Amino acid sequence: MTEEQSAKGALSCSGCGIQLQSEQQDKPGYTPVQALEKDPVICQRCFRIKNYNESSSVTVEQDEFLRLLSQIGERQALVIHIVDIFDLQGSVISGLKRFVGNNPVLLAVNKTDLLPKVTNWNKVKNWVQKEVKELGLKVEDIILCSAKQSSGFDRLLDAVATHRDNRDVYVVGATNVGKSTLINRLIHDYSDLDQELTVSRYPGTTLDMVHIPLDDGGSIIDTPGIMYASRYSELVSPEDLSIIMPDKPLKPVVYQLNEGQSIFFGGFGRFDFIKGDRQSFTCFVSGRIPFHRTKLERADELFATHAGEMLAPPSRENLTKLPEWTRHEFRIAKGSRSDVFISGLGWIKINGDTGAVVAVHVPKGLKVMVRPSLI
């Protein structure tokens, strides 16, 4: 450790923000003593994620996440809440108002690059506005963006300039919504700092608040991602996470179904058309997930016999690590223009106007709901 570092006291990882330590290898912040001489210094966990694409079981407890977030309400801050357009209802932080108090909130809707190119963006923004209002979230502005493609950044920066008023900027969001990617773009384009946050597909990559100084004396602060067990991305293995999380524009798959037919999404879930006139259903899920159509009367037996093999991924071994499936039934009203949404897996759009009774089978605890159609 250098004299300058010693004078500053405890070191923090420049990748995830956790306080560094060299005593307990299985605890957050571990880094070998010799690595402390490097500048910038990162923990062993971030090193393995960056260099070997390895995941880690080291995470921060939910209570600690909430404690860190609650600090925002005690300060003068502008809050950027990043959500995932692919998993909007699953990635909105419920009760955000409790944590941020009267501080203004900007909603950055990330991963818009995943939506089909023919998407009407004004309709998407209006849809987001209605949905977040329904969820009880009051925001100053909504900015559609893609950290991956750097689109929407000018609008986001303009919104920050309009609403910041010399406040520090806190960036909050659930895990895997792209917080660190977005902040790294800001660092790269608008700062001379030789620092980069750890970016990966693994939940909980940022473990503590990471402060990035601005020229005017303020800071951008990246906060840990909230981990919600109601999202598929928190339940699956690292290998399956890369399968269910799309990284390319969604290619909708349309099925014409008669009542009494089912669609399997690999072994991740099942959609049943129980009752209604023949109609079409559009599936918006990752292109890496295979579909299998069958008769509803055969679906239970098919899953019991072929889950993890013909109905895969996940593998049979990974499937046993997930909660048992539970059934959610919905009655779709005539002319309602609805999606059946499965948090972290995607959604099924009901295209018919005549109404339907449908059901979804997924691991217990996942958020499943009917919502107005996004597209």
TrEMBL record:
Residues 66-229 form the CP-type G domain. Gene3D superfamilies: P-loop containing nucleotide triphosphate hydrolases. PROSITE patterns: G_CP. It comes from the Bacteria. Pfam families: MMR_HSR1, YqeH-like_C. CDD domains: YqeH. GO terms for molecular function: GTP binding. InterPro entries: G_CP_dom, GTP-bd, GTP-bd_ribosome_bgen_YqeH, Mito_lipid_metab_GTPase, NOA1/YqeH-like_C, P-loop_NTPase. This is Ribosome biogenesis GTPase YqeH.
